[in-house]
Design goal:
Helicase, Ruva Protein, domain 3; binds magnesium ion; 3 domains; single chain; binds adenosine-5'-triphosphate; 16% strand; six-stranded antiparallel sheet
Amino acid sequence: MKKQIDPKIKFFKEISALIDSVGDLDKLLYIIIQTATKVMEAKASSLLLLDKKTNKLYFHTATGEKRDKLKKFELDRGEGIAGWVVEKGKPLLVKDVSRDPRWNRKISDTIGFDTHSIACAPLKINDEVIGVVEIIDREDGMSLRDEDMDILTAFADLAASSIAKAQNIRDVKDENIILRKELEQKHQIIGEGEKIKKVVADAKKVADSKATTLIYGESGTGKELIARLIHNQSPRREKPFLVINCGAIPETLLERELFGHEKGSFTGADQRKNGLFEGADGGTLFLDEIGETTHAMQVKLLRVLQEGQFYRIGGTTPITVDVRIIAATNRELEKEIESGKFREDLFYRLNVIRINLPPLRERKEDIPLLVNYLLEKKSYENNKPIPVITKEAMDVLISHPWYGNVRELENAIERVVVMGDGKEIKVENLPLDIIREKMIKSPAIGVPLKEAVEKFKKDFLLETIKYADGNKNKAAKILGIQRTYLHTLIRELGIDI
Ligand SMILES: Nc1ncnc2c1ncn2[C@@H]1O[C@H](COP(=O)(O)OP(=O)(O)OP(=O)(O)O)[C@@H](O)[C@H]1O
Ligand SMILES: [Mg+2]
């Protein structure tokens, strides 16, 4: 004889299967309590959740004819039967509510629901009670029974695990959003000036194509940042962005890094290893400092660019990859070609699209923005309050030549943030080399020598005294003169301190 499946179990199985397919948690919870009501042949049911902030229970979902009226009610933790269950974390069956002092008749009376019995089970996630499921009376008018309690507990567990699952998914999603934001923040390109805006616009324009791109710029101007921007804006963004600094490693190592090798191809090659060209398949390979490569290397790179194929070291099978190449250099490659250091054919292969990054001293309009951005970034990274910068100090930073470009500015700001008190940045708090640079600036041509020397002396003494926190003893020591002589100079030059 075929074994009959208890219809309750059948329901339960069906609903368990639903958990993974219903993406909307609210809908799923409604289905769970609706099914619970049906299976238990109850009159009504509801699911209440605990608001952790207010410590009150609110009706999240309810079934039955009066369900809409329930929405406005809230219960304190410990109040009513639901509140008791939350407090104790245990299920409770009350067969006759009129005899139980825990029952809060206010709700039933207000919504006009004639309640006799209530079964209530806690919703638990890792031992923490997050709410309850309760059912009211049987449809046939009889009180709820002990066996109903077991079924209700099973449904409550199902609802709790659905909530936990949804929370996990939401947490992972939130985390992803945060990580992506952080990454974007890290690679943010700051600048409002026309020059940098053009660079960014060009980078976005070329992102869609696969065209090889050459980024030219002095060191620290943001070449890698722009290469990342191109990659992140391109259809390749989900695939790897790999970077290699061609100037930093010897040729044989560079070759292994780029092309990989077969097992046994050289002493120590005991495993086959994929190179960066393979690693970046579908994505972008950023060849930094391409101008530093040897002729032999340039020939090898040219071959990959022309044929889209290469061999691993020691390999005989050609490997085909789909990689976008972005190269960068701080050398004038045209000049390198003239002097025979760079191959012209490779240059033309790389120079399909060219992006020139202006040095910072040619886009001084961006310095204030960059300074404030970097102050915020470095304070955050170093766990320090964000200081404000005085106008004078900002002026010094604007007029500084920044031969090391944004990277040098970034390092200077980091030093100031780390060494500072987190309140204010004055000229004298700036790194000494920057102040010095400002001071040795010569006055305008056309000024008589005597006047120029006097002005220089005045500025120089003033800055040194400021640097010495106004302490003239210290200033005299830095200047290598007697304190009394310093006083004489101050008087003679009319220095106002
Ligand atoms: N416009 C910008 N906005 C914000 N940060 C920038 C900008 N330009 C450069 N930076 C920052 O300056 C530093 C140097 O940038 P990047 O490494 O891209 O320059 P690079 O030209 O590749 O330098 P290097 O020649 O030193 O390799 C990085 O920390 C980068 O985040
Ligand atoms: Mg770089």
